[in-house]
Amino acid sequence: MTYPSRFFCLCDPGQVMRPVMCTRREKSSYTPPPAKYGGRHTVTLIPGDGIGPELLNHAQELFRFCCVPVDFEVVNVDSSLTSEDEINNAVTAIRRNGVALKGNIETNHNLPPSHKSRNNLLRTSLDLYANVMHCQTLPGVQTRHKDIDIIIIRENTEGEYSSLEHENVPGVVESLKIITRVNSLRIAEYAFRQAREKGRRRVTAVHKANIMKLGDGLFLQCCKEVAAGYPDITFDNMIVDNTTMQLVSKPQQFDVMVMPNLYGNVVSNVCAGLVGGPGLVPGANYGKDYAVFETATRNTGKSIANKNIANPTATLLASCLMLDHLGLHDYASMIRKAILRTLSETRLHTADLGGQGTTSEVVQSIMKEVQKGGPLTSEKI
Amino acid sequence: MASSRALLSLSRPLQTVWSGRLGSTVKVFGAVVPSRREKSAYTGQSIPPPARYGGRHTVTLIPGDGIGPELLNHVRELFRFSCVPVDFEVVNVNSSLTNEDDINNAITAIRRNGVALKGNIETNHTLPPSHKSRNNLLRTSLDLYANVMHCQSLPGVQTRHKNIDIIIIRENTEGEYSSLEHESVPGVVESLKIITRNNSLRIADYAFRLAREKGRRRVTAVHKANIMKLADGLFLQCCKEVASGYPDVAFDSMIVDNTTMQLVSKPHQFDVMVMPNLYGNVVSNVCAGLVGGPGLVPGANYGRDYAVFETATRNTGKSIAGRNIANPTAMLLASCLMLDHLKLHDYATMIRNAIHTTMNETQLHTADIGGQGTTSEVVQSIMRHIQSGGPLTTEL
Asked: Which residues form the Isopropylmalate dehydrogenase-like domain (chain A) (predicted)?
């Protein structure tokens, strides 16, 4: 068998509008990444802190039960260390495998500002420029709003999260928000392509260009330019404050939303709150060559760690997104159906949804649903 | 008394020029220079601005664009009907002109009168970036550093959440709204977010003092210090320092994304919130959405010497302008806040009670809250309630 040649392509962002260079990791949803070593994929697993480890254990348990052909390479990142070795190891592992599933790594506020957020480092090193969160009301979950179906595409590498701050004069801090033309074009292009692939009608750009005329003005302009190339999709824009107000009163008007980093953070959290909380929504970070899956709202959940009360739905749905990404669609839909059946029919809810179930009970119930669904489980084989 | 007032009024032009020029943040912890507009509690509770010319106040009125002019006309009509001793000095600001004379005239008028009631002035996106937002210019020139929005559910308005009572205090002059942007390299824009120690201490102090005065138990600082360690870290640290001087008020902090998520699921956990400019914008709009929409909540901008009142969410409402369907509640409640600021509490309570009666008992709602009433019908109803409430109207 040919030795798979792994090279990670350090493409510069200037290549956005030219034909995309083909690499082994071309993730345009046409070619799955290569399965290695006898048909089994290897995926990096970063447990993180708080509820991450226990939930990812459940994900591993579920995968073993369902005989999913995925092996996990576990890389621990200790958030209390100041050296960046551990996170660099994790980044190397992801470069090797191409796909990762992670829990959130805690950022300690008491450490000096030179200690950067590990999650942020990971995202920027791997250039995971698009954070996609598909917010859907799940059947069986009681919420104040019904029928929400919004895809939020958030720029993941620049904007307010550039970590460039300085204090020229004592007592005056300047924090730089960077918006670049290439990144804005790239994320707008991603958003419209996703909208077209998923058959969506409308893309809304969220901005604050009345105040930040150059910064968000550039973002908006890039979105308009890209929109011109997709005449089948309607494009409009909305200021972020009006957007959040509309979201809490009439969220059904939104279809696909694209926005810079900080607004994406706020809007995605508002939407997560609308569909039932942080325990229900999975998120995905896509780059040109890599993909990392995690919960959408990136909570560490320190206060509920190890109490067996965390909601595993978000992490498990994120693992289903990962399986879809790897091309293992049958396994993904099998697990997803089992999760939805547990939520809606069995109504086994954890405490954050107002129920009484524990994490392990929910996972057991999902496994039972999977078993009922078909023959492919480790019990029968 | 009258002679000393006359004497002071002669030195007033000099003083307003001088104090307006400085507007500096250096004075936060030094001895505050007494001015005619001394609001030592920053909430306008201690010394009222001078009533001039026979007991009638003069207030600057800036109609703005969109629904501003019609709603402010209703306010004037209501004040005339209720015999409120306030005269309005109308200053028009044309948002399409590029020179800054109009807004400078408005600022001078506010410096003269001390108090203003305004509609939102539209910012045209298509004009070049050198054309700054007029509202922002007004806020920074007058150093209106605190934007206070008291978000309360009105019982008669149908909302998904009941009994919300949150005070949001938002830093109004710096943060992301500094309008300092540049494009050093073509295609790369750097936008500066400025956080200063003085302004953060000032707004935190304002928040805790307001919490104490209103008998509130808890102040929550909203930030994103895990990512913006220096900037929001400084803000958070200033809040902590000020909190230590107010042991009777509990202090905690929350990251902005978690805050917005908690707001849509469990808004009752919040009491008083203090935050920098952009988060304040988003959070106040979320709260406005929770209590029923932009037509219901009034907002106030306080500075050391001046106060400007407007709707909390600062909407221009171009699409509903001139159609008699806008909700006048926010603007009318803002005018009540202004009357409270001018110490005309009786009038303020009278109008506020009438508004609440119309909202809750008569249930005459405009289209934005699901009703069928027009703006004029709502205002007429409020006037009827005032008339039935007591003798002080022009009909008699």
From this structure: 42-366
Adjacent-strand bridge partners of A132: A153, A284
Mutate to test the interface with B, among A16, A174, A263, A303 (most CBs of B within 10 A): A174
Is pTM beyond 0.80 here? yes
**Pairwise CA distance, residues A190 & A213, whole Å:** 23
DSSP A102-142: EPPPP--TTS-TTS--HHHHHHHHTT--EEEEEEEPPTT--
Query: Which residues 130-149 in chain B show a CB within 8 A of chain A?
Result: 133, 136
What pLDDT score was predicted for residue A33?
54
Residue B114 near residue B305, CB atoms below 8 Å: yes
The set of residues, in sequence order, having a beta carbon less than 8 Å from that of A200 and lying 6+ positions away, is: A151, A194, A233, A255, A256
Comparing CB atoms, the residue among B181, B183, B285 nearest residue A244 is B285
- At A335-372, the pLDDT tens digits run 999 999 998 887 789 988 888 899 999 999 999 999 98
CB-based contact (8 Å) between A13 and chain B? no
What domains sit in chain B, N to C, each tagged with a CATH number? Answer: 50-122+132-148+296-389 (3.40.718.10), 160-291 (3.40.718.10)
**Tokens encoding B70:** 């019609």
B-chain residues within 8 Å CB-CB of A210?
123, 125, 133
Closest chain A residue to the Cα of B158, Cα to Cα:
A249
Burial classification of residue A235, based on how many CB atoms lie within 10 Å of its CB (0-12 exposed, 13-18 middle, 19 or more buried): buried
Count of alpha carbons within 13 angstroms of residue A216, beta-carbon side: 26
Name the residue in chain B with its Cα closest to that of A272. B261
SS3 label, residue B49: coil
